[in-house]
């Protein structure tokens, strides 16, 4: 007669380890996102010199929003803000960028 297989109990240590691994994975993903945003800004920044003053200012404002979002991803990766706060900040940034695009297109139509 065979005995029933032993079932491993999942303890608090296992749960802490799982949470820790998940947190590290999310932190690395956030840092990769920040790095990607930095790369976008770094590639676009030299192009600003060729623009006229108004377009350069608008583009710089747009890039500044991306820099701020990259910094928010780093704050999340360091554990200084939680995922809800990162989501809120990301949504706020996207709304500001959308407003900037709307204002630019509205000026083109009226000019």
**Main sheet makeup:** none
SS field, number of helical segments: 3
Approximate shape: elongated
Subunit organisation of the chains: single chain
Measured by DSSP, the beta-strand proportion falls in under 5%
In short:
Helix content is 77%, strand content 0%.
Blueprint of the fold:
Elements lengths: L11 H33 L8 H25 L5 H28 L1
Question: Any overview of this molecule?
Answer:
The protein has 111 residues and is mostly helical. It is 77% helix and 0% strand. It has three helices and no strands. It is elongated, with a radius of gyration of 22 Å. The mean pLDDT is 87.
Question: What descriptors fit this protein?
Answer:
0% strand, 111 residues, elongated, single chain, 3 helices
């Amino acid at each position: 007669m065979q005995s029933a297989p032993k079932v491993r109990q999942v303890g608090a240590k296992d749960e802490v380890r799982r949470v820790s691994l998940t947190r590290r994975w999310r932190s690395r993903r956030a840092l990769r996102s920040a790095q990607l945003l930095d790369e976008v800004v770094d590639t676009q920044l030299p192009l600003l010199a060729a623009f006229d003053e108004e377009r350069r200012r608008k583009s710089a404002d747009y890039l500044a929003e991306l820099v701020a979002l990259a910094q928010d991803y780093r704050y999340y990766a360091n554990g200084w803000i939680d995922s809800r706060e990162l989501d809120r900040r990301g949504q706020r940034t996207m709304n500001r960028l959308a407003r900037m695009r709307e204002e630019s297109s509205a000026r083109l139509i009226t000019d």
